[in-house]
What does this fold into?
Amino acid sequence: MTHQEYFCERDPIAFPLWQKAVVGIAGAGGLGSNLALLLARAGIGKLIISDFDTVSLSNLNRQAFNLDQVGMYKVEALAQNIRKVNPFIELEIHTLRLDADNVCELFHGVDIMIEAFDEARAKTMLIECFSQHFPDTPLICASGLAGYGKSEEIRIVQDGQLFVVGDQSSELTYGIAPISARVMIVAAMQANLALERIVWKNSLP
Amino acid sequence: MEKQLTINGHRRIWTEGMTVQDALDLMNYTFIMLVVKINGEVVLRQDYASTLIPEGAEVLVIHLISGG
It folds into this structure.
C-alpha cells in the first residue's frame, strides 16, 4: 500500500495542510485517545501525545483501548491503535506527568494544542501555562462532559486563541466514570475544531 | 450613565477599584477551578484579589470541570 493509495479521496485544499500540521495532545484518556484516532484518520502529519497513566479495566467504557492492552502505558497502547489505522502518521509519545515546568518544553512549536486531561486542576494548569507562553497558538480545551443526553448543551466558548468545548456545568458523581457517548461528542468537537483551525490559520493572507 | 463591564457576556456595573475577586463575588462564581481572562489576558489565581479590572473590560470566567 502506497501513501497515495492510502490517502485517496481527500480534500484537495484541507488535506495537504493537515499533512503538514503538528498537533499536541495533553492526556490519552477518554478525550485524548478518541480524538487522536480522529485526527490520525483525517491525516494530521504528526501527533505529540503525553500521558503518565496505564490502561485499566475501568477505562474501557470510554477510552480507545482494548482488553488485551490493560496494564500497558496509555501512550504506547494508543500508538499501537493509531498505527493500525494510519501507518503513515508520525507519532511522538511521552510517558510522563505534565506540569507547569515541562508542558511548554514538550509542546513548543505545535500548530494546535489540545487539552485532554481528566482533572480540572491539570486543565487549569495547562491553560494558564500555555496561554502565557504561546498566546498565538490555538488551545482547545474540554470542560463539562459528565453523564448522558443533553447533547445540545455542549458548546464551544472562544476567547482569542482559547477554545473550551463542553457544557461547563456537568460535574462527575463520585465513583461514576464519564460515559463514552458524551465524552466522544466533546472529543470529536475538539478534533473537528483543530482541523478547522489548521485550515483557517493557513488561509490567512 | 453607569460605568459597565461585561462578565461572560452579562453587562454589570463597574466600580472604581473593582478586582477580579470582586467580579467573581458579584457573579456568585464560587466554583473552585476557574480560569479568568480580562480583555484576552489570563489572570492567575494568586492575583485575583490584587488585579484591578479596567472600566469596560470583557471578563471571561471559564469553569473547569473534571472529566475526560
In short: The radius of gyration of chain A is 16 Å.
